[in-house]
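Service request form, structural biology core

Requester: graduate student, group of Dr. S.
Request type: structure prediction, single chain
Budget code: on file
Notes: please return the result as structure tokens.

Sequence provided:
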Amino acid sequence: MTGKQLVRDVIANRGFDRLPIYLFNKDVDKSDIISFYTMPAESFRPKEANESEWGFVWEKLDDTMGQPKAAVITDWSQFSSYVPPDGKDPSRLRGIDEFLKKFGDKYVIAGLGITGFGIMTFLRGFENTLEDFYLERENLEKLADMVFGYEEDLIRQCVAKDIDAVSFYDDWGMQFSLMIDPKLWREFFKPRYKRQFDIIHEAGKQVYFHSCGYVYDIIPDLIEIGVDIFNFNQPDVMGLDKLSEFRGKVCFNCPVDLQTVAIFGDKQQIESYTDRLVRSLGTGRGGFIGYMEEYHSIGLSKENYDIMLSALRNYKP
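Core staff response, request fulfilled:
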């Protein structure tokens, strides 16, 4: 059975003879899932090193991904002259046909990179964005429409190809709560996500949604509007017992918790957690896909990486 068919069966709870695994940034040739990442327009010429098409500049102080150095739209008077990237530019998918020929036996995700709220905060600044919900709502609505509209154009390009899913990377959680009031999230963001997810589902593709932190309050909403696969890298933040409430309603793609056991656990603890992870979030016939990420930048040792990978590969359904 190909990785593509195995993943599809697990998402649909049709049974499986081995656990599928998404190897995110290491050993990807052995992964059942693989991502094609959309690219900057071929015509884009950055003015300085690490500048994005949106205009913010990435700053890295260590081996992590870093963060933008400064906001782009510091005053709303700048917004009327700001020109966003063109999501309809076909060069963003350059190389995808060759990619699909090479990896057609795997479950292929079209990756949009960081999306939605994340891009909004990069453009406007995090604190400014939070204040704008209450002080500059009309302008923030326009900013959101610009960002989500760009993504909708890019999504339409992606789903026209022979991919399986489109991914969203939009961190919404802090350690113990959502970043904004859940009621505000439902009012402001839920309809925008639904428009995007509807485009994907109407094309017969699936929705892959990553979010870090405590997002328990909006999980039912995201399932309602069409998330098919959740990627939570710190499941202990919400707790496996709470996440298990959604078992069978959505497919989970989670690692051994990357804040706790993956970093500090020994072989026995990692193997025990892997078993509890699959049993808590899976249905017995599917509903769970293993996830692995090389993450030395936050303290994950090669030894624990190898133990986690072995635990997933040797898991017996």
